[in-house]
Design a protein that fits this description.
- The protein is mainly alpha-helical.
- It has one domain (13-117).
- Helices cover 78% and strands 0% of the residues.
- It has helices at 12-34, 39-114, 125-128.
- Helix 1 (12-34) packs antiparallel against helix 2.
- 0% of the residues are buried.
Length: 132
């Protein structure tokens, strides 16, 4: 089963909370409509509940917007840090490659002086420690 079919996709948490709030409002409204009360009193209670729900929805929206902004800033900061790390790593690798090439070139020049420039290596201690 995919994540999106289970409700774990983008915005799944907000959708769940909105569903819970909607269910709560509908439950309260149905309860009031089915309760034996005079019409004017019922309309007043429904109006009060609607106002109460509106306040909660506005607070929830403001908090969700604030959290979204904080998360967005955090992700942007982490992405910038990641780019910096990759850039530094790339430079370090480039410097390492250049250093290894330098060692290889100096090693080839040293091998020419030793007389083993054809890729052969010294096979005994005397050849290894021979000074030129």
């Amino acid at each position: 089963m995919s994540d999106s079919s289970r409700g774990n996709g983008d915005g799944g948490g907000a959708g769940f909370v909105l569903g819970v709030l909607t269910g709560a409002v509908l439950g309260v409204a149905l309860g009031m409509l089915l309760a034996p009360k005079p019409g004017e009193e019922l309309r007043g209670e429904l109006e009060e509940q609607a106002r109460h729900f509106g306040e909660h929805a506005r607070k929830f929206g403001a908090k969700a917007s604030e959290r979204y902004q904080e998360a967005s800033e955090l992700v942007t900061d982490l992405a910038d840090r990641g780019r910096d790390v990759v850039s530094h790593a790339r430079e370090a690798v480039k410097e390492g490659v250049e250093e290894v090439r330098g060692f290889a070139e100096r090693g080839d020049a040293h091998a020419d002086v030793d007389g083993s420039s054809n890729g052969e290596t010294a096979t005994n201690d005397a050849d290894v420690f021979r000074s030129s």
